[in-house]
Amino acid sequence: MIKRPVITNSIQTALERSRAVALIGPRQCGKTTLARQFVPPDSLNYFDLEDPVSLARLVEPMTALRELRGLVVIDEIQRAPTLFPVLRVLLDRQPLPSKFLILGSTSPELIKRSSETLAGRIETITLGGFMLAEVGTPALAQHWLRGGFPLSFLAQSEPDSLAWRKNFVQTFLERDLPQLGVRIPATTLLRFWTMLAHNHGQIWNAAEFARALGIGETTVRRYLDLMEGVFMVRQLQPWHANVTKRQVKSPKIYLRDSGLLHHLLGIRSPVELQTHPKVGASWEGYAIEEIFKSIAPDEAYFWATHNGAELDLILLTHGKKFGVECKRVDAPRLTSSMRTALDDLQLDQIAVIYPGDRRYPISERITAVPLEAISDAQTLFSG
Asked: Domain with 319 in it: what CATH number?
């Protein structure tokens, strides 16, 4: 089993300071495995809401949960939204006999209900698949190709990994989304998801998607928000700076897992990835997700003007504003966009992430940084 010390420590710290912790993220990303490090699955304090036995125990939830002591885990809580009011009552007890670690695979419903009923009582942690720091730099090529979902990354062979991802997509569309109340046909969402893959790293154009699918722009925006809410897509919003240049105001779209992106693009091997027209966009999205997993910035945006100046990321963290550019080149060099962004956006520094192994200065306040060196904001933007 691959250890995940950073996220494990984050959960432990959150449990020490908060009455409840919500661990949210896509299905099959490892939430259950982490939770079982805190409470064993055969414990009376462990509830899996996809297990009929756990569901039966929670027919009378107040009776079932009131007498428990210590840490209580409730997995897949979005399947029982009526538990939130019960949890509010239990978390308001003084002294507090038990804390709760709740796991969920969808953000909109979980966050909405927890913010309504557990405000001030719950801390939320978002989990993705394995990050590069967890699997090790020697596995970078495999991690990029297969993505971070544990069963995809750890598969015995490339065909096995591809088969898992194909089955994941099918199950996700035909079973998981309908269980969340989504009534959109699976074939329609698969077509939409595939279109998103072919537009990975590009500016969102609702009109283009609406024409291709034969539906309204409002509907395709709803599809996009749905896919973001179940952690399949990232909408990176534009930065609106007070500058004279006309700026792009639509979000950029990225598929969050590179393995699923490659499956939807029909990429089956390292050779096919290296020769595919979307290889640059794929690496950019992969690097951006690694940055989000490692840094967890307070705010993040991209920047682009209609004159062609652009910057992949603007990160607000530790009271400073940093820029990030992702370049799949052997030796990044200074560009006019970097100079423009540094001055117009008043950035403290710009880090140019690339697939090399040496850190070096490109210009004053602009540094080339290997992807493998990213661990936190301090190391990314130091020197």
From this structure: 1.10.10.10
Establish whether the linkage from the previous residue to 95 is cis, with ω within 30° of 0. yes
Instruction: Please check the confidence at residue 201 and state whether its pLDDT lies above 60.
Output: yes
Q: Mean pLDDT score of the chain, rounded to an integer?
A: 92
With residue 130 as reference, give the H or E element that holds it. Answer: none
pTM, two decimals, is 0.93
Closest CA to 197 of 141, 263, 293: 263
Question: Between the CA atoms of 26, 27, 32 and 33, what dihedral angle is there, to the nearest 10 degrees?
Answer: -90
Q: Residue 101 belongs to what domain range?
A: 5-126
Whether residues 64 and 182 share a domain: the answer is no
What are the angstrom distances between the C-alpha of 76 and each of 27, 42, 179, 253, 375?
A: 9, 17, 11, 27, 30
Distance CA 356, CA 310 (A): 22
DSSP 85-108: HHHHHHHT-SS--EEEEEEES-HH
Answer for the pair 22, 75: CB distance below 8 angstroms, yes or no: no
- 318 with 338, same domain: the answer is yes
pLDDT of amino acid 222: 94
Q: Where are the beta strands (DSSP E) in 186-294?
A: 202-203, 233-236, 252-255
CA–CA dist 65, 30 (Å, integer): 25
Structural domains counted in the chain:
2
